[in-house]
Design goal:
The complex is a heterodimer. By secondary structure, chain A is an alpha+beta fold. Chain A is built from 11 helices and 8 strands. In chain A, strand 1 and strand 2 form a beta hairpin. Chain A is elongated, with a radius of gyration of 21 Å. The two termini of chain A are 35 Å apart. Chain B has a 7-stranded mixed β-sheet with strand order 2-8-7-6-5-3-4, with helices on both faces. A 4-stranded antiparallel β-sheet of chain B has the order 9-10-13-12, with helices on one face. Chain B has a two-stranded parallel sheet with strand order 1-11. In chain B, strand 5, helix 7 and strand 6 form a beta-alpha-beta unit. The radius of gyration of chain B is 22 Å and the shape is globular. The chains are: A alpha+beta, B alpha/beta. At the A-B interface, strand 2, strand 3 and helix 2 of A face helix 9 and helix 10 of B.
């Protein structure tokens, strides 16, 4: 049984400001069904740049609901310049603390707020362009670097609590450890640049086959999924998902973040991976 | 406040008759069964009775019963002993839906130089028998397949599996922690070499289990120490809990019909009631071959921990296959192996009943749960009421 504070319990059992703000001019959506939690934050920001109304819709555990509810209470009446400074620690503190396994719920609140404000300002929503490190939850090296710096994280466990990264199969633990070390002690993290390669078509196809067999499929099989290579057409790699992947709502993310990223890294940066069209697929 | 406990696959309330038999072990029969005096003799006698009772429940011989500290120890002991007895064989066969007591052990053995095949299941949780057949090799040291699944209650065809494994001359172990006490388990009928059971799943206290080891198998101990348990497990016998396990096994045998008739009816009523009142939910597992007490229901678009904590407000105690309750971030490996979509896996609740549950309690859950589900769905960004 989680050790939730009375305030977490109160915000979970009596959530404030649920639903969607009508005519919202700030919308922030984070998370997904696959990840186990998701939050849609809607704001109405007036001409004086003050948040007049805030509502949330959350799919998630008690602390995700409580964090969302707390966030809406915190921001209502606040100028957006102030709201932009809210950190996940502020949300956790407002609730009297969260169990360490649940810190990511407050991070989700902060991210949704950041996106809602960016939406209002008409800015392009921050999309991380880093290399995916945790394939289970689609977390990039840049996400991890940011969290390690901002929240002064020192262990893999803390990174998992904040970002979920490393909370699935655990294959990325070494890489997470390397990033923590680089940021905290190694004098900064340097992103890996894939080396450019020139290959003949035959060499390219063989290499694609090899990478899929030796790297991509074993990783998918760990999650009870699988895929097969259907065709290579120029730089287009056509694959078909099998096993758990074929019904997984994250398969599109896996396709881009894992399969394509791995092939680009190992074979050629210009490769594009596409899924073979399967009319029987349930989506 | 009213408490409705429907989490009996997690653990059970200790039966009063079990407690009554257990208590004198602390005040009167406190001797060490190894001691050469009257106190030792008394303790030895009640230990013998307990062993006979457990053996009877499995239709086995008393000297085939080895007492352990829990189901996990039984599973670890069985698999390690099988590997030790055949040092040249490096292959293990198990399933993707085992309890962590087997699954994590095999994953750990994989790092020690063994190779495990994890057999897949279909959407109903049924074992892929073709994959099972194909998995048996001359290098296979042991096949360990659970009798019944703790999360969905799905019962595997253990008779067919055990017979096929024995035809190939391979050792067969079954984790029967969820089966013993709920459905008949017969060592004469089914040729398992080893079988694990646990006390606290059948109204005995926590901290005691047993391992059935078929006579003739050269078993090497997991806990090395004294000569207790015929040299199969070191450590002074936990007499109080062993007596409790013996009594609980006897009572389980007495209540077997009730479990399969009355408890099953309650479970079916609960399931039908919830399915009729709550949209977008479904039952997981092999409905034709399932423990009589277990129901795993997925409620789409909401998350299990939130459901549990709201049910808790009404005094209803169940459990969830969701990630958030376990401290891990991924939903249950059992539901994932079954290919349950993420829209539902995170919102899966397991109700597991027992002979103490009443019809009033079932009605109470049916009355309270629809509002809990609706409340959480109204808050969910994915829920669209049509």
């Amino acid at each position: 049984m989680w050790d939730y504070t009375d305030k977490v319990k109160d915000h979970f059992l009596n959530p404030r400001n649920t639903g969607r703000v009508e005519n919202a001019n700030g919308i922030g959506e984070v998370g997904s069904l696959a990840c186990g939690d998701a939050l849609t934050l809607t704001l109405r920001i007036n001409d004086n740049q003050i948040i007049e109304e805030a509502k949330f819709q959350t799919f998630g555990c008690a602390s995700a609901i409580a964090s969302s509810s707390a966030l809406t209470e915190m921001v209502i009446g606040m100028p957006i310049t102030e709201a932009a400074k809210i950190t996940n620690e502020d949300i956790a503190e407002f609730l009297g603390g969260l169990p360490k396994e649940k810190i990511h719920c407050s991070v989700m609140g902060r991210d949704a707020l950041e996106r809602a404000i960016a939406y209002y300002k008409g800015e392009k929503v921050h999309v991380s362009e880093g290399n995916v490190i945790c394939h289970c939850f689609g977390v990039t090296d840049l996400d991890i670097v940011r969290a390690v710096k901002e929240a002064k994280l020192t262990t893999i466990e803390e990174v998992t609590s904040h970002l979920k990264a490393g909370g699935g199969c655990g294959n990325c633990h070494e890489e997470i450890q390397a990033i923590i070390w680089a940021v905290n002690e190694g004098g900064g993290y340097v992103q890996k640049e894939p080396a450019p390669v020139r290959l003949t078509t035959m060499q390219k196809i063989r290499l694609i086959e090899k990478v899929i067999e030796e790297e991509v499929r074993p990783a998918l099989q760990k999650d009870h999924g699988d895929m097969e290579l259907i065709d290579v057409d120029g730089n287009k790699v056509i694959v078909k998902f099998k096993g758990a992947c074929s019904s997984c709502s994250r398969s599109q993310i896996t396709l881009k973040n894992h399969v394509e990223a791995t092939l680009r890294d190992r074979v050629a940066t210009e490769l594009v991976v596409e899924e073979a069209i399967d009319e029987n697929r349930i989506c | 406040m009213k408490t409705v406990y429907v989490d009996n696959n997690a653990t059970t309330r200790v039966d009063q008759q079990v407690i009554d038999e257990m208590m004198p072990c602390f005040t009167e029969y406190y001797g060490n069964p190894s001691s050469m005096h009257r106190k030792g003799g008394e303790a030895g006698n009640i230990l013998k009775l307990a062993r006979e009772r457990v053996a009877k429940t499995l239709n086995a011989q008393p000297d085939e019963i080895l007492f352990t500290s829990c189901g996990t120890e039984s599973n670890n002991s069985a698999i390690r002993a099988a590997l030790k007895a055949q040092p040249t064989k490096k292959h293990i066969v198990t399933t993707m839906v085992e309890h962590p007591a087997v699954k994590s052990l095999c994953e750990s053995l994989d790092k020690e130089g063994y190779r495990t095949t994890y057999l897949p299941v279909d959407g109903k949780g049924r074992l892929n028998m073709a994959a099972f057949e194909a998995s048996l090799t001359p290098d296979t040291a042991i096949v360990s397949v659970m009798w019944a699944n703790n999360e969905t209650g799905t019962i595997f065809p253990i008779r067919d599996i055990a017979r096929r494994v024995k035809e190939k001359g391979i050792l067969f172990h079954t984790d029967a922690v969820q089966a013993v006490g709920k459905i008949p388990v017969d060592a004469q009928d089914i040729p398992f070499d080893m079988l694990s059971l646990s006390g606290h799943k059948l109204h005995a206290p926590k901290g005691v289990g047993a391992l059935y080891v078929r006579s003739g198998f050269k078993f090497s101990p997991f806990l090395i120490g004294g000569h207790q348990e015929h040299g199969k497990r070191g450590g002074t016998e936990n007499i109080g809990s062993i007596v409790a396990l013996g009594k609980a096994c006897e009572l389980a045998l007495d209540h077997m019909d009730e479990e399969n008739v009355r408890v099953k009816q309650l479970r079916d009523k609960l399931e039908a009631g919830l399915l009729a009142r709550i949209p977008k939910c479904f039952v997981n597992g092999d409905l034709a071959n399932r423990l009589p007490n277990t129901s795993s229901i997925s409620f789409e678009f909401i998350e299990g921990e939130a459901i549990l904590l709201m049910m808790n407000e009404f005094g209803i105690c169940a459990s969830s296959g969701s990630a958030c309750t376990s401290g891990s971030l991924e939903p249950s490996h059992v539901l994932r192996a079954m290919g349950i979509p993420f829209t539902a896996a995170h919102g899966t609740i397991r109700f597991s009943l027992c002979r103490y549950n009443t019809e009033d309690e079932v009605d109470y859950i049916i009355e309270k749960l629809p509002a809990v589900i609706k409340r959480l769905r109204d808050m969910s960004p994915f829920w669209k009421e049509d």
